[in-house]
Amino acid sequence: MKTVLYVEDDEYIVEIMKDILESFFDKVYVAYDGEKGLEVYKERDPDIVLSDILMPKMNGLELAEKILELKKEQKIILITADNENNYQEKAKKLGVYGYLNKPIDFNDLKKLIN
Asked: CATH number of the domain at 3-113, please?
C-alpha cells in the first residue's frame, strides 16, 4: 500500500491536490502546516512526503530536516511558488529527494513518485 503525506497551508490547493494524489496513492494524509505535518508523519510513517516550502509555524525545509533526522532515507518532495535558488540549494544540502515549482507539472511529479 503506497501512502503520501501532503503538507500545504492553502486549503483550496489541498482539495485539488488530494484528488489528484488519490489517483497515485492508496492513502493520502493531509496537514495544513509544518508542525501538524510532523505530527502526522510520526503517526502514519508515509512512503512519500510532499510539502510546500512557505508555510506558517514550520516551513517545508524545517519539516524536511526534522523528518530526515528521524528517518534518513525518507523520500521528500518539496514544492514552491517562490523560485528562489536559495531554497533549492538548501533542499539539496538536506538530501531532499525532489523539488518542484508551482504550478506543478504532473508528469514531473509522476516521474518522482514512480
From this structure: 3.40.50.2300
